[in-house]
Design goal:
The chain contains 13 helices and two strands, in the order αββαααααααααααα. With about 290 residues, it is mostly helical. It has three domains: about 90 residues, no CATH class; about 80 residues; about 70 residues.
Length: about 290
């Protein structure tokens, strides 16, 4: 299948705007991933590589320079990745269902919010609490095992405490494994796929709110700069004057990013789900 046909299946045009195709097909994920990987590997400095590239893309190498072929390839790579992201975002629930349950649990554990969601579902928040407790326990075991042991043996007899210290490595390994197991069981019983979807929606709410707030603030910044330029009698604004004009707004931008820090987790979560889903779909097709 020609690459442009593969990429074209991801999106459609609605009211003059490119949007994700409304129909979900698992093959769209694997075909795109395979196609983009193949596209990236063509050697456009050799006759054979150019010929294979032309066959795959439909580009006529006789009409383009090497530099332009590189540009056209980069456009397909970057545009294809963006369109794939649109497609995964549109069909996130269906894509998540493609992921095997153990992998869903791993993704849910990795992407779990660091604190309970205000106004969130009670059971969902309970899972967050279990997972975050697990992470903190494992982090203490990994970074300061002596602190973990010291806290543990406070509630033990002197004899048992001495044995825990003597066989600390084995004790810590079990504690680490059981902390991980408690989190995995919490995700399993809640439904790891549902947990991932809810988490993604939470991250997306923050990402959308941040985007809207940034647009408003960037417009405010532009207006202030434009006004300052008009009042500067045709001279270029100095660095110090620009910094003075933007001082309060710069802090406001930092505050926005802090308030919506969860937004930064949206892309990594989406990429993890897509990666695992593509792998599972490919394995299923090859079976």
């Amino acid at each position: 299948m020609a690459l442009d046909t593969i990429l074209g299946s991801l999106t459609t045009i609605e009211q003059g705007k490119k949007v994700a195709s409304p129909k979900y097909r698992p093959e769209n994920l694997t075909d795109t991933a395979t196609g983009l990987d193949k596209l990236e590997k063509f050697d456009l400095t050799t006759t054979a590589g150019i010929r294979d590239y032309a066959s795959f893309t439909g580009d006529n190498p006789s009409e383009h320079s090497t530099r332009m072929l590189d540009n056209r390839r980069d456009a397909r790579l970057n545009g294809g990745q963006e369109d794939l992201s649109l497609y995964v975002d549109k069909h996130f629930y269906s894509v998540t269902k493609e992921v095997k349950e153990p992998d869903q649990i791993n993704i849910g554990y990795k992407s779990c919010p660091t604190e309970k969601i205000e106004g969130g579902n009670r059971k969902y928040n309970e899972v967050i609490e279990v997972v975050e407790t697990s992470k903190k326990t494992r982090e203490t075991i990994a970074n300061t095992p002596e602190t973990f042991i010291a806290e543990t043996i406070k509630n033990e007899s002197k004899v048992m405490g001495s044995y825990i210290v003597r066989f600390a490595d084995h004790f810590l390994r079990i504690e680490d494994e059981e902390a991980q197991e408690r989190a995995s069981l919490a995700l399993f019983h809640y439904g790891a796929g549902e947990f991932i979807t809810t988490t993604r929606n939470y991250f997306k709410e923050h990402a959308d709110a941040l985007s809207t707030a940034k647009e408003s603030l960037e417009e405010k910044i532009k207006l202030r700069i434009d006004m300052a330029k008009k009042n500067n009698k045709g001279k270029i604004l100095s660095a110090i004057k620009t910094a003075d004009i933007l001082s309060g707004l710069t802090q406001e931008m930092k505050d926005l990013h802090e308030k919506h820090a969860a937004a930064a987790n949206l892309t990594p979560l989406t990429q993890d789900v897509a990666t695992y889903a593509i792998r599972t779909i490919a394995e299923r097709a090859a079976a």
